[in-house]
Amino acid sequence: MRPPWRGRYPRSVTFPVVGMVGGGQLARMTHEAGIPLGIRFKLLSDTPQDSAAQVVSDVVIGDYRDLDTLRAFARGCDVITFDHEHVPTEHLRALEADGIPVRPGPDALVHAQDKGVMRARLDAIGVPCPRHRIVSDPADVVAFAEEGDGFPVVLKTVRGGYDGKGVWVVDSAEEAEDPFRAGVPVLAEEKVDYVRELAANVVRSPHGQAVAYPVVESQQVNGVCDTVIAPAPDLDPALALEAEEMALTIAKELGVVGHLAVELFQTRDGRILVNELAMRPHNSGHWSMDGAITSQFANHVRAVLDLPLGDPRPRAPWTVMVNVLGGDYPDMYSAYLHCMARDPQLKIHMYGKDVKPGRKVGHVNTYGDDLDDVLERARHAAGYLRGTITE
Amino acid sequence: MRPPWRGRYPRSVTFPVVGMVGGGQLARMTHEAGIPLGIRFKLLSDTPQDSAAQVVSDVVIGDYRDLDTLRAFARGCDVITFDHEHVPTEHLRALEADGIPVRPGPDALVHAQDKGVMRARLDAIGVPCPRHRIVSDPADVVAFAEEGDGFPVVLKTVRGGYDGKGVWVVDSAEEAEDPFRAGVPVLAEEKVDYVRELAANVVRSPHGQAVAYPVVESQQVNGVCDTVIAPAPDLDPALALEAEEMALTIAKELGVVGHLAVELFQTRDGRILVNELAMRPHNSGHWSMDGAITSQFANHVRAVLDLPLGDPRPRAPWTVMVNVLGGDYPDMYSAYLHCMARDPQLKIHMYGKDVKPGRKVGHVNTYGDDLDDVLERARHAAGYLRGTITE
């Protein structure tokens, strides 16, 4: 088996070039994971100040929505992958037509870009989802509600939402008017009676190898991921297996290459339903940087290069990730003294982003044998960095 | 406690800039360790092709032997540290006089630059070394031999040697002529009857905090480090403690800031003697990247910034590092398929360097419960990458 770039550089002894579209923290951490593999990174970033642009040597500043920019960027890349899912599907098809491997490819990625397409496809392959339907106006939302258990109903624009944006929970026809104002198709979903959120992270390579990380519990605050516990505590092993198999099935059936995060609801009556899909390294997998034998970022790089995947198993009984959100105090560096002195095992991951209230600017990982202790350490550090804990 | 750069950027919310002199693999891996901390790296590199220059965004190409170049580079850095020990001592003093923190400082670093100064200082603080003396000519080497057990005698130029270069083992006055030709002072040492080589790695910060990594066994082949086993197998705990304390004493007495590697002989009669010192992350500490809670590179960054140090303890019972040397086959990337498929837990660290026979171009780490298995996996992978194992 010969990797795809070999034919392009027959006399070269250099390692492949991975083109990463998007300069956010996922690109930054993917670059970090690529360094030890000798992989060369080329970054397409909106600005030189973007998180990844600060640490990558080969950066192109440009707009990923412009096909000419993408095409010029892709020249000299052996494969293109993504920090986010916002590149227009037709541009990805154009790059593929130019002969550039795009991973994940447009046919897979559309399921992470368009919630309507995603729901239809998951229905078709028999993956359990919340009851759902594309709705056309507030009256249709009322009809959707009456077909089930009534209000509240969850409305989502099919494209463009993230971290709670583009999502509404409505109790009436009047409240259902906002989502239609953007002119984007709106998906209605039942408000699931869930006990917690889980995430199943898998990585799949072009030749079909796939690995599953342990299913994690993901705790949201105001619609934003706050805490991830790996593995999910007190999860029935049969349900964990079902979630892993579900994620592997989705990856295979949708032709995903790279990392796939499947966000799940664990319902009060013991089922799991798919909430969202993300086809890139994901916040629910950040624990793996310090908690797994192979991190999600390293495995994403290996997958997009069609290299054999690394072992996804945990290195410690418990790993906890807590996001560091921006607070009122912009200087997080001075908090290092306290955090590092208090917990010499703490793992800090900062993204080099300007601190703005509520913005994800980093995360911390802790691991160990005692979940209470591991949780306390991560929460304390994240709170101290944010400024909500001052002692 | 306020970090030293705070006064320089009173209104800045940015993180400190670490200036790294030298673009080799140690700089590359230090940069990798600095990314999650949000530390900004500025690199002074000989060429844009150097190992670290490939992956650092802020690179100055220049000659570290030129004081003006160093001074211009140091502007905008909060602290200067090093990939190697070759910067002239007087240049470091000039930078310090300019107000730039240099870590380790010239008074410490000279002990890693000049073996004569090092031996004199270790004698003065009572650290056991091989019998040694500065010798002036071949006749003086004969005299040195006769003062002890006779030939062979080890001769070393006091400056400029590494990886076996600048070292001679001589059996007669005639053989002792070569080392004097360079015009550099020559140190004579007894040929120690050792059973193995060990290394004690410690990290010390400006305010005096220090941590000790477990003492490792370092196996050399043709004067070049080949395999490191952490911790050193079958090492008497009292001897391990003595080695750690010795390294901590040296770090303190010499005023080392950052990583200090103390290469040791374990003698047949059960003593440990200091062979060499290195004041930077060191090959004998590469295992810590995957095998310790905090890697030597992360702790070096923390030390030079006077941040609290991270836990140096191992994460697995055994970790093995084997260097990947260049072989006859220049394309190491295609070997990834076999190596990764054979061992999904393997950790590869490549430096982006051109493959030349015998050159250190990377290393692999393995860890686990069974030393024989861990050793076999690392040796197989390194051999396969080099091309000496083909199945």
From TrEMBL, chains A, B:
Keywords, ordered alphabetically = ATP-binding, Ligase, Nucleotide-binding, Purine biosynthesis
Superkingdom is Bacteria
An example Pfam family from this entry, by short name, is PurK_C
Report the residue ranges that make up the ATP-grasp domain in this protein.
119-306
Residue numbers binding ATP: K115, K156, E189, E190, K191, V192, E197, N275, E276
Gene Ontology biological-process annotations: 'de novo' IMP biosynthetic process
Q: Name one GO cellular component term.
A: cytosol
MF terms (GO), sorted A to Z: 5-(carboxyamino)imidazole ribonucleotide synthase activity; ATP binding; metal ion binding; phosphoribosylaminoimidazole carboxylase activity
Annotated metabolic or biological route of this protein = Purine metabolism; IMP biosynthesis via de novo pathway; 5-amino-1-(5-phospho-D-ribosyl)imidazole-4-carboxylate from 5-amino-1-(5-phospho-D-ribosyl)imidazole (N5-CAIR route): step 1/2
Which EC number(s) does UniProt give? 6.3.4.18
Catalytic reaction list = 5-amino-1-(5-phospho-beta-D-ribosyl)imidazole + hydrogencarbonate + ATP = 5-carboxyamino-1-(5-phospho-D-ribosyl)imidazole + ADP + phosphate + 2 H(+)
Q: Which InterPro entries match?
A: ATP-grasp (IPR011761), ATP-grasp_carboxylate-amine (IPR003135), ATP_grasp_subdomain_1 (IPR013815), PreATP-grasp_dom_sf (IPR016185), PurK (IPR005875), PurK_C (IPR040686), PurT/PurK_preATP-grasp (IPR054350), Rudment_hybrid_motif (IPR011054)
Subunit relationships: Homodimer.
Among HAMAP family, the record links this protein to: PurK
Entry's family note = Belongs to the PurK/PurT family.
**What is the role of the protein in this entry?**
Catalyzes the ATP-dependent conversion of 5-aminoimidazole ribonucleotide (AIR) and HCO(3)- to N5-carboxyaminoimidazole ribonucleotide (N5-CAIR).
Name the UniProt record assigns to this protein? N5-carboxyaminoimidazole ribonucleotide synthase
Name of the gene this protein is made from: purK
